[in-house]
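Students often ask what a 'structure token' actually looks like in practice. Rather than answer in the abstract, let us consider WD repeat domain 31, a protein of 313 residues. Its sequence is given first.
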Amino acid sequence: MGKLQSKFRKRSELYQVLQYEPAHYGSINTVTNLSPDLCVSGGSDQAVVVYDWKQGQMCQSFQGHNREVTKVLCYPGSTWIFSASRDKTVLMWDLNQGDEPIQEFCGHELVVNGIAVSPGRKLCTGSRDNWMCLWDIESAKCEHRHNISRNLVTHVCWVPASFSVVQTSEDKTIVWDSRSWQVTNTFPAKQYIQTHCDVSPNGNYLVSSSNGFGGQGCEATLWDLRQPGCKVVEYRGHLQTTACCTFLPVFSGGSAQIATSSHDCSVKIWDQNTACLGTLSLDGAGPLVSLTPTDTNSLLCASFNAGLQHIQL
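Now compare that with the structural description of the same chain:
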């Protein structure tokens, strides 16, 4: 894990890099927060790792998948961790209950790319097999399943304080009602594959990102969830696939901001309503595929070639 202490400027300048012990051996596909000090990541080494990013030390490594980990997620206010994998399963772990999974969710036929949890102890999973599934966490029972043709799911997230689930797929962005497990809204199709999505803390906005090359299609798009199909703005500037997009915590008196990471080895910060505020290039890091805010001042970024990066804004 490399800790980068730098500021976002129109021309990024790297002031200091501190190298810590590796979190993974191989590429890192996903990262999320567990607590103010701890993050959870998953990678091509099939491991799920809990890491103290402030101290630069590994706390726990969970081994249970037999193919690479695609997504990790933490249940808010708990020590529960969920991991999705190319082995078609989702495993549930507890940081306080040893190194074996405490629950397993099986039923998909292809790689699981999307996982989301609700405060009501429900788990949503989405896969390239076109199925969206809703599970009871405690029993691991699948309560609802729905298949939509060509819905090769790439990411899933729950809309805060609601019954809605948003998912992106290779050619769709869809909103589901978790009570009926029916589609309530389908966004206008984009030309390029949708790679990721996130919902603002107030539940009003959705940001989605897409693949592309040569600057074509490599954008993130802001949508107004209160007005179905309403596109607010597009964020253009990456030169290759925009792999991840996330809303940043809003500090007192500040404006809403969004962070994006790309296969072009850069992270960009955007004002939600206007333009790019700055770019940080991590040359040689390879595709930057996952972001998670740690607080209002920093981000964790997962890379293919350079481990986890701690970026101070």
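One point worth highlighting: The two ends are 17 Å apart (CA to CA). Ask yourself how you might have guessed this from the sequence alone, and why that guess would often be unreliable.
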